[in-house]
């Protein structure tokens, strides 16, 4: 009877605002039951993706720990002396390790179908994953420039000083963080209502989930931001890496006969670093840049 009287009262009102207010009052009286959707553990595609991420997590964490441990023993044997290449590799491994740490959260989110860790962990997850991808590409670019300087301008010692390398890495980290600030600040755990139905008088059943997503960013701003990231954090670094390694390999080829046997490892290191850069930019490291750009391009924005 109460529900019928309410509907009569609702439709006797003339203005839309009054109807909306009465609708809110009616919903306030309702008993709301929230339910979760079934998990995705039976979805084969989700399981394959989750298994791939976990494999990458295990390989990435163990590989980076092994690299850092090896460098630690090398530094101890050399009485703490580290050249620029090792400094860049240390920072790159630490950044890469941070990206790997974020992978289990992605796996759990995929299997359950919703985010269960709250807004704070959501922001931390976004920082580890996205900041790491941006900074990694910038560090690899700096490594290519350092390799070029060490071979083609070896007389300019100040360009390969440890202080300059640390300053460059600090500046790159600051640039990556400032660039991503609008992107990372908007991340939070947001409740989404997938389905709701009035199952009985004054009883509402809703299927709700939380997702770690961006809020309060228009699609136009998000598109501009994505294009900016793709140009200045992928295409431009890739162009620099290509430019400096082409010049480096030309110089190595021109003077290969003049190199002494003690200089051969320098060429090998340059070729190894070139291979790492090619794998990173072309094939994509773990999830890579290409899936990353597709992911944030299709990410829901509210």
From TrEMBL:
Gene Ontology, cellular component aspect: neuron projection; plasma membrane
Annotated compartments: Cell membrane
Keywords: Cell membrane, G-protein coupled receptor, Membrane, Receptor, Transducer, Transmembrane, Transmembrane helix
Membrane spanning stretches: 46-74, 86-105, 164-185, 220-246, 266-283
Bilayer topology: Multi-pass membrane protein
PROSITE patterns: G_PROTEIN_RECEP_F1_1, G_PROTEIN_RECEP_F1_2
Keyword Cell membrane found: yes
Gene3D superfamilies linked to this entry: Rhodopsin 7-helix transmembrane proteins (1.20.1070.10)
Keyword check for Nucleotide-binding: no
Xref: InterPro entries: GPCR_Rhodpsn (IPR000276), GPCR_Rhodpsn_7TM (IPR017452)
Domain (G-protein coupled receptors family 1 profile) ranges: 63-302
SUPFAM superfamilies given in the database record: Family A G protein-coupled receptor-like
GO molecular function: G protein-coupled receptor activity; peptide binding
Family named by the database record: Belongs to the G-protein coupled receptor 1 family.
Annotated protein name in UniProt: G-protein coupled receptors family 1 profile domain-containing protein
Record organism: Wuchereria bancrofti
């Amino acid at each position: 009877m109460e529900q019928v009287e309410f509907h009569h009262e609702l439709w006797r009102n003339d203005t839309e605002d009054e109807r909306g207010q009465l609708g809110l009052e009616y919903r306030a009286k309702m008993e709301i039951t929230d339910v979760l959707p079934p998990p995705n553990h039976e979805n084969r595609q989700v399981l394959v993706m989750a298994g791939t991420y976990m494999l990458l997590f295990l390989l990435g964490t163990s590989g980076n720990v092994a690299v850092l441990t090896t460098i630690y023993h090398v530094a101890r044997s050399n009485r703490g002396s580290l050249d620029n290449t090792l400094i860049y590799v240390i920072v790159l491994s630490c950044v890469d390790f941070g990206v790997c740490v974020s992978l289990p959260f992605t796996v759990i989110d995929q299997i359950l179908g919703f985010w269960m860790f709250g807004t704070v962990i959501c922001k931390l997850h976004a920082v580890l994953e996205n900041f790491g991808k941006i900074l990694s590409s910038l560090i690899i670019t700096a490594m290519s420039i350092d390799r070029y300087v060490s071979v083609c301008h070896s007389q300019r010692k100040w360009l390969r000083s440890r202080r300059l390398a640390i300053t460059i890495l600090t500046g790159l980290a600051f640039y990556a963080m400032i660039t991503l600030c609008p992107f990372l600040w908007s991340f939070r755990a947001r409740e989404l209502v997938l389905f709701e139905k009035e199952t009985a008088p004054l009883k509402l059943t809703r299927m709700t989930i939380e997702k770690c997503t961006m809020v309060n960013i228009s699609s136009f701003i998000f598109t501009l931001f994505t294009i900016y990231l793709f140009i200045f954090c992928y295409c431009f670094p890739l162009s620099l890496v290509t430019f400096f390694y082409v010049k480096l390999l030309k110089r190595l080829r021109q003077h290969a006969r003049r190199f002494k046997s003690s200089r051969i490892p320098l060429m090998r290191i340059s070729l190894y670093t070139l291979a790492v850069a090619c794998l990173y930019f072309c094939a994509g490291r773990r999830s890579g840049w290409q899936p990353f750009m597709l992911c944030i391009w299709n990410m829901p924005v509210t």
